[in-house]
Write a structure and sequence with these properties.
2 strands; mainly alpha; two-stranded antiparallel ribbon; 2 domains; MetI-like fold; globular; 1% strand
Length: 281
């Protein structure tokens, strides 16, 4: 069987490999080259060295401000989403009626598109704020917390499902042993349950980290970076640079490459950090 699989391995993987190269590898390599060029289309690109990267960090670029706002958003989003999702997972793994219904209801927001969610929450939050003669774009603070609420509402249900799967795999004999030894529910949670669901924590933290960093459509729909680009996240800043400013296509491409490196490094460090804390069952 193994010999047969090895013999036909390339035949079955070749279509996927070709699609991956055409859709990701080749565009990525081309994007790296274009980040060192001045261009309006791929055909008229002219090499201009590192000037695009220098312009990325110019005060008029807005990249550093967008990156700072994004980092603040990511930190709060990761903590709030994972804590609330884990708490819901704990609750819904107890023997209570209607758990399947609750799981479905909490998961449903993840099925709605980001643009639709953004405009829906924009209308709801503005309706509340207008009672105080404010809107989401009256202050960066309102826009920031609006994005946090939206991201939590969309992702908590998805993370909850992953945590439920992890909690259901915790060996019951460990929980019973902890109970026999006189451990309190808090001690059992932090000394037994959480260490045993660290693989789920690794996955959920990575997903919330990457999705929060890459947030674009919700940011565009909810605030579009207003007021004065103060709620503009990095993904939106890159698109505005690439499509919104003539002659800045190369700068937008350089921003995209820098952003890719940042997200890749942060994601790698997070996975290494959390995996070291996983325990074997």
């Amino acid at each position: 069987m193994q010999k047969t699989l090895k013999k036909y391995f390339l035949i079955f993987t070749l279509p996927t490999l070709i699609a991956f190269c055409l859709a990701f590898v080749i565009p990525f390599i081309l994007g790296v080259y274009l980040s060192f060029c001045k261009f309006t289309t791929v055909d008229n690109a002219t090499f201009n060295g590192i000037s695009n990267y220098i312009n990325v960090f110019d005060s008029t670029s807005g990249f550093l401000a967008a990156l700072g706002f994004t980092i603040k958003f990511v930190i709060v989003a990761i903590i709030s989403i994972n804590v609330l999702a884990f708490a819901l997972a704990l609750l819904l793994t107890k023997k209570i009626k209607g758990t399947n219904v609750f799981r479905t209801v909490f998961f449903m927001p993840n099925l709605i598109g980001g643009i639709v969610l953004g405009y829906t929450w924009q209308q709801m939050l503005n309706a509340i704020l207008l009672q105080y003669e404010k809107t989401l774009i009256s202050s960066p603070t309102y826009g920031y917390w609006g994005l946090i609420l939206l991201m939590n509402w969309q992702m908590i249900g998805y993370m909850m499902i992953i945590y439920i799967a992890g909690l259901q795999n915790v060996p019951t004999d460990l929980l019973e042993a902890a109970k026999i030894d006189g451990a309190t529910s808090i001690q059992t949670l932090f000394k037994v349950t959480i260490p045993m669901v660290m693989p789920s924590i690794t996955i959920c933290t990575f997903l919330t980290l990457s999705n929060s960093f890459k947030l674009y459509d919700q940011n565009l729909a909810l605030t579009a970076g207003a007021p004065g680009h103060k709620t503009e996240m990095v993904a939106l800043n890159i698109v505005n640079s690439f499509y919104g400013r003539t002659g800045f296509e190369g700068v937008g491409q350089a921003k995209a490459l820098i952003f890719f490196v940042i997200v890749a490094l942060v994601g790698l460090m997070q996975v290494v950090f959390t995996r070291k804390r996983e325990v074997e069952q």
